[in-house]
Structure formats: structure tokens, C-alpha cells
Sequence to fold (272 residues):
Amino acid sequence: MATPKSNLSFLDIVDICDNVHLRRDNRGLYDISFNDEVLIPLYLSESPNSAVIGLLRPIIVQELERENARSREIGTPELWALRLNASEQIRLRNGISGPSASLRDWADSPSKRTAAMNSLCQRWRDTGLFADVCGPTKWRSEMYPVYADPFGVHDHPQVAGREDGLNYAFEMERSACALFGIVTYGVHMSIYEEIIGDRGEPSMQMWIPTRALTKPTSVLSISNADNAMTVDLVGLGTSITQLRVASQAGCRSLNPSSRSVWKKLASMLTSL
Fold:
């Protein structure tokens, strides 16, 4: 067991929390922090030229194999193309042949992908699979947009049915994104006040709230003033998403004084 360290800076603590260390060599891509666990790239479609939208751990790949078996049993199309054996592997985008996974080509539109992923995530929730991630007590009921290029334009369609030619790929339940290695985004806001002390010395005070009892995760943990982890949540945009979270926090708070601060925050955001 590692010896605890003292006098750590904030940057030291961040470095400790960043516990995913990826390495790529002739074996493929793997995480050296978890016993060299091999990670499988998740492609948007069966084409080797399609976008890589996530990374899959072996335990997730096993469940996707079971999902395909389930589809065959009930007579529905398989959702997953799993190229795991050496004879099935393709040359990946990095030029190296290796295992990969993708959505089947029949899921060729954001609407079809969203429906398929929503069905899968709800089934995993209801059966208690990965209950500590997307089980009933962790379920967020928030649809998260997934983009072919996670660092490209966030062009979630504003009009239903207009999906062609977009970077937007589909939506899925927020709590399940981590299972598929999907890139997630967030914006955080902190509230501080610059004050002058009795002796004229400048200082700063920060408002450090705690999370509400009604939150599905990290109940009563220290939090920042407002955080909207799902930026562009269902295409709302950063500012509106931030306002939505602030308004929800104010309504859910059980502390009257805290509720007042949240409502004031929401009012401030509205005026921006």
C-alpha cells in the first residue's frame, strides 16, 4: 500500500485523481493502471473509416456479446459488430490491425441509434447490471448528445427529423456514458466575493454549497456553486443548460436560505 503523502498541492491531488494512464504498442491500446487491461475502440459504424466514439473495457464487450445473443434469440437484428478474433480484425484508423467494435450499419441515423441505445440502457438499469453506474438509484433521466467528433461542432438538431450531415450522432442516458467510454463535457461556475477586511486588507470569500438530498450521486458532498455536466444537454446550449441546473438546484434544496441563493443565481444567469 502506498504511503500517504502530506503537503500536497492542488495539482498533486489532481494528478493522483487522474488514474487512467493509456499506452499503445503492438498489443493495442491498454490501461497500465488496471493490470494492462486492453481497451477496444468503439466505432460509429462498421466502416473502418468511421468515427471512433468510445473505448470499451472487456467486461462491457462481454455484455455486448450477450446482447447480440439475446437479439438472435428473439429474432431482432444484432446491434453490435464485434471483430474480436484475429481472423475478423480490420486495420484500424491508426494503421494497426486489432480488435474493434461498432454499431451495425442498420443503425444508420441518430434516431435509430438513440432508440437502440435507450432500449439497451433501460434494460441494463432494470436488470441491475452495472447498478453502481446506471442502476435505478444512479439513473439521471437526462439524454446526453454524442458527437462523431467529440471536439468538433456541437450541432444537435434544433428541428426534429433534420439529422443528415451533422456531427451529432445520437443521444444516450447520461449515467451510462462512462460504460462506453464516451467523451463527456461539463461547465462549472463558482461564486466568490472580493471583500476588504477591518484593516483594509483585500481578501476573497467563496460560497461552497453541499449537494441536495435528492441528488442521485454524492449526496451532501461539497460541490461548486453550479455545475452543468451535460453541456448542450439535448441541444439547449451552454448558457441555457447552466440556467436549467441552477433552477433545479434551487427547487430541490431543502434549506430555505440556500434555495434563496440558488434562485438569485438563476435570476443572474437569465440577465446575462
